[in-house]
Write a structure and sequence with these properties.
The protein has about 180 residues and is mostly helical. Helices cover about 75% and strands about 0% of the residues. The chain is built from 9 helices and no strands. The longest helix has 24 residues. It starts with a helix and ends with a helix. The model has no long low-confidence stretch (mean pLDDT about 85).
């Protein structure tokens, strides 16, 4: 793995940009995919958003100043692209974001890429009930094990606000699962 500063320098150098970008994609593709997938739920949608994310990274890498870590900057782009995608999908289909989430959950049950059992599906349904920002915070903390400090940099929000949002999300998920338990 190349040092981040060297990778950024290569990405911002015309002669090295393409090779460095291929390395960046190889290194971050899977992590960014799962961040996006946890937001949009659908495999094909996640692939589309991931592609848009990498296009945006490629086009804007010269504006990256190094004020944050490269992966922090990329996660922020992926988060924004996921939210934008969900909003556009709702608008395009003339439905609410809630209906977009419901449709995605129904599709998740038959998704060949979803390897979860009934409990994991219930967990995903609970997560899907969260508002977008809260869902983003929860999935990045829970699934990707980001620290609150990292999340603060990625989402440009205070650590205290993130902790509060995360704990509220946990309570909502717990309540949803308890309410929807099958006896």
């Amino acid at each position: 793995m190349v040092e981040e500063k060297e990778l950024v320098a290569a990405l911002q150098t015309e002669a090295e940009k393409e090779a460095a970008f291929r390395q960046l994609v190889t290194e971050y593709k899977q992590r960014l995919y799962w961040q996006i997938r946890n937001m949009v739920l659908d495999h094909e949608d996640a692939d589309d958003v991931l592609q848009n994310t990498f296009i945006k990274i490629f086009r804007n890498i010269n504006s990256f100043k190094g004020d944050s870590k490269l992966h922090t900057w990329m996660y922020r782009i992926a988060a924004n692209e996921s939210i934008t995608f969900l909003n556009k999908k709702a608008k395009r289909n003339n439905i609410t974001l809630e209906e977009v989430k419901d449709n995605a959950l129904r599709n998740l049950e038959s998704d060949v890429y979803f390897e979860g059992d009934a409990i994991q599906l219930q967990f995903q349904k609970a997560i899907a009930t969260l508002p977008e920002k809260q869902r983003l915070i929860f999935t990045m903390k829970y699934f990707e094990d980001h620290t609150f400090k990292e999340l603060s940099e990625i989402l440009e929000t205070s650590v205290g606000g993130l902790k509060s949002s995360y704990h509220i999300a946990v309570k909502k998920i717990t309540a949803f699962i308890k309410t929807n338990e099958t006896l």
